[in-house]
Specification:
The chain is mainly alpha-helical. The chain is built from nine helices and no strands.
Amino acid sequence: MKSNEHTKTDKQTRERRMRSIIKKAAFSLMAEKGIDQVSMREIAEKVKVTKPVLYYYFKNKEDLCQSIVEEHEQRFLVLMDEAYAKGHGLEEVLNLLLKAHLDFFRKEPINSKFVMQMIAYTLNKKFPAETRRPTAEKLLADYLRQKEQTQRLYPGAARDIGILVSALFFEVMLNSYVDTYVYDGKRGTDYDEGQITRLIKIILLGINKYYEEQGK
């Protein structure tokens, strides 16, 4: 009995390892060439397995791509959860969120390249709608609504802050892509932790000022 359990565990470990190897190879190819331009055959050749082996783990390219997106999304959501847990007050939480976002793309620039390829791919509506859900933005919106409901924000401010911060999320990613892949890192990024701190403060001060004036 124990021998059978051990064999089953070994098989599961091997399969997890192979899934990881396949996803890593596909991620690299898709980021470099574009999702449309990468075939399952090409991925199989890079991993040095047959196509039937590839289809044993993933039913098609969309399934493989979705698995890659979910894995990277989960990695980023862990960073977001840490920011929500560590932050004391709205401003600090937003700072930590944006800095985590900055690090995510600064430490691994290929992430921005893959996101750009995903945007091009999903614009053609080739990906199921549920896989295009902006989960990170949804978590941010939920957090801001909670703050609004506890009367720490003016009614309506949560949506405004969410839109502005989400735009900053995208701008940080796009800036990382342009700096790395358009200018080969020679231009230098427009964003650092100091700039993030200033922009968050400007957003919150501006929102508060606006709603104070509206309340007069």
